[in-house]
Amino acid sequence: MYLNKLFAITADMGGWELFVNSLWPMIQGGIKYTIPLTLIAFTFGISLALITAIMRLSKYKFLSIPARIYVSAVRGTPMLVQLFIVFYGLGQIGFTIDPFPSAIIAFSLNVGAYASEVIRASILSIPKGQWEAAQTIGMGYSQALRRIILPQATRVSIPPLSNTFISLVKDTSLASLILVTELFRKAQEIAARTYDFMLLYVEAAFLYWIICFLLSLVQDRIENRLDRYVSK
Amino acid sequence: MFLTVKGLSKSFDDQEVLKHIDLEIEKGNILTIIGPSGSGKTTLLRCLNALEMPNKGLFTFSDGLEIDFEKMPKKNELTKFRLKSGMVFQSYNLFPHKTALENVTEGPLIVQKREKQAVFKLAESLLDKVGLLDKKYLYPHQLSGGQQQRVGIARALAIEPELMLFDEPTSALDPELVGEVLKVIKDLANEGWTMAIVTHELKFAEQVSDRVLFMDNGYIVEQGPPAQVLKDPKEERTRQFIQRIMNPE
Ligand SMILES: Nc1ncnc2c1ncn2[C@@H]1O[C@H](COP(=O)(O)OP(=O)(O)OP(=O)(O)O)[C@@H](O)[C@H]1O
Ligand SMILES: [Mg+2]
Predict the structure, then answer these.
(1) Is pLDDT above 80 for B237?
(2) Structural domains in chain B?
(3) Which residues are listed as membrane-spanning (chain A) (predicted)?
(4) Distant-in-sequence, close-in-space partners of B179: CB < 8 Å, separation ≥ 6
């Protein structure tokens, strides 16, 4: 029954035509929502992650314990549930936030927790001798961190943070479930009308793939630039 | 006396590594510290720079700066104390993301906030002194071990310390590179620098030291002029140690 209908529509429009016609709405969803959401959430997320990592490394418990709880809570709960809490949950108790800002909040918090672990590990991977050398030329903790440790830790954390970034691109498709009309929601909307699930979802997958591929090229360039002081 | 240390003690967990050490360093003098592995040489040197926080010890400098580690020293006192000495590490510890020149300028420029032009002039003259002016734009990984260590010495000199500390500055180097680093240290000796050097190079110690200090098990066993400590030690333990280094079986 369904199958008949599907064949009918596909035959009607022609598969290729549907592919081309739905390309632009999906790309629009990507440009208007997927990419901005990714970039904004990643920027906020990394800033949050840096603060969280430094708090976690602090010897003061009143800094390290809240950071630990935050990381543990985010990592221990599903992304989708976090998204629903921010959008539907907060909405219900009177803090109504639009879908797109809700998504930004939820994804920033999510990236903040995961990336803080990456940043913390990369800070810890810098040899103790670097801290000591900084100390002997008179640097205090924050100066040593800023000028000596973080630049080196940045190089170490680029590959894992790129992974976080690429995961984020793909995870933003979850925002379709809180009504953000991003790339995948466009695909769902068109599929709901045409029933051409296979074609449209493969097309969406293809677009995500292209975005991630382009990002991996950018990653290589950044790594090469930062590699000037590392022997190859 | 440039520096007088009284009652320096340091423990790690419940192991006492430095046991109530008294020490004097005279202005312009070169003190070498020798002793078996684990005797506390590195720890002693690191305490002189507060890289290791002594548990106890009264440090008095000729200019009146006095720090008593039995109380927690104030932060600005500690910074002053640290900048009195420059440290040269066994494993160089150069900043890998900075060029040779930037390694040297980092302290005076960023920490001490001295005037830029003067700092660059100073840094270039220091790199020249250690024979590496033509390598100033290279990163540490582009330099040999001996060259890296010489940059390390220039970096330590750049904060214009009054005391230079060396922890086995040549023991991570290939034998053929040891000479170039020792030569730089000898040059500094001739310029009248005050230095404390931990070393296993007894011949070098004999040539440059004003005083040799033999440590064992957290104590200073014996100290005196090199001719005495290295050639005619009073203590049996010193004699055995020197024997062992001179004639390894
Ligand atoms: N950070 C530390 N934590 C715990 N124990 C330490 C630490 N640093 C040094 N020790 C211990 O203190 C003792 C003295 O060590 P130190 O490094 O000062 O010896 P050393 O004379 O420099 O030896 P070597 O000739 O091998 O360099 C050793 O028993 C060592 O295990
Ligand atoms: Mg040592």
Answers:
(1) yes
(2) 30-42+87-246 (3.40.50.300)
(3) 33-57, 69-90, 198-218
(4) none
pLDDT at position A10, please?
56
| Dihedral sign from CA coordinates of A83, A88, A91, A96 | positive
Cα–Cα distance for residue pair A184/A211, rounded to 1 Å: 13
- B62-66 contacts: CB < 8 A, separation 24 or more? B62/B1, B62/B2, B62/B3, B62/B27
The answer to whether residue B167 scores a pLDDT higher than 90 is yes
DSSP A160-203: HHHHHHHHHHHHGGGGGGGT---HHHHHHHHHHHH--HHHHHHH
Task: Tell me the helices (H) and strands (E) count for chain A, helix number first.
Answer: 12, 0
* 10-residue averages of pLDDT along chain A (232 residues): 55 74 89 94 97 96 97 97 96 93 97 97 97 94 96 92 93 93 92 90 94 90 79 48
Q: Residue B12: in which H helix or E strand, if any?
A: strand B3-12
Task: Return the residue whose CA atom lies nearest to atom 22 of ligand 1.
Answer: B42
Which amino acid is it at A117? E
Mapped onto helix, strand or coil, the DSSP state of residue B169 is coil
Residue B41 Cα to ligand 2 middle (Å): 6
Distance CA(B107)–CA(B116), nearest Å, equals: 12
CB contact under 8 A, B82 and A136: yes
| CB distance A85 to A93 below 8 Å | no
Query: Which domains are delineated in chain A?
Result: 2-227 (1.10.3720.10)
Nearest to A139 among B86, B111, B139 (CB): B111
Q: What is the pLDDT of residue A9?
A: 56
Ligand 1 centroid distance, CA of B44 (Å): 10
